[in-house]
Design brief:
The chain has 121 residues and is mainly α. It has one domain. Helix content is 73%, strand content 0%. The termini are far apart.
Amino acid sequence: MINQYEVPAYIEDHIPALKKALHQFPAIFHVYDTVGCFSEYTGRQLREQNYAIAGKCLQVAGRLYEKGNEVVKGAITRVFVPALSQIPLGDALSRIRIYSLIPDAIYGLYIQQQLSSHGNR
C-alpha cells in the first residue's frame, strides 16, 4: 500500500519531468499539493494533446488510487479527478481519446464528477 509520504517519489519514478516541480514545496508532507502539481501537469499534457505522456500520467493516477491508502485515495478523489474533469474535451474525437486514456480505477470517479459538475450548471 502506498502512503502519502511515498507519493512524490512514486510520481517522480514514473514521470521524471515532474521531479523539479515536486521539489519546489515540501511535497512529501503535503500529498494534496503533490497531487495538485501532478494534476496540473497531466491537464497541460491533455490540452496540448500529448496523449502518450498524458496516458502515462493517468495510469500513475489510477495506480495511486488502486494501491494508495485512504489519504492517497482521498487526494486523487478530491484533487486529481476534479482537475481532470475541468479539462475541455473539444471535439468528439478528442473526447473519445481522453476517455480511452482514463484507467478503470478512476474512470467511474471521473464520470461521476462530470455528471455532478454538469448538473450544477
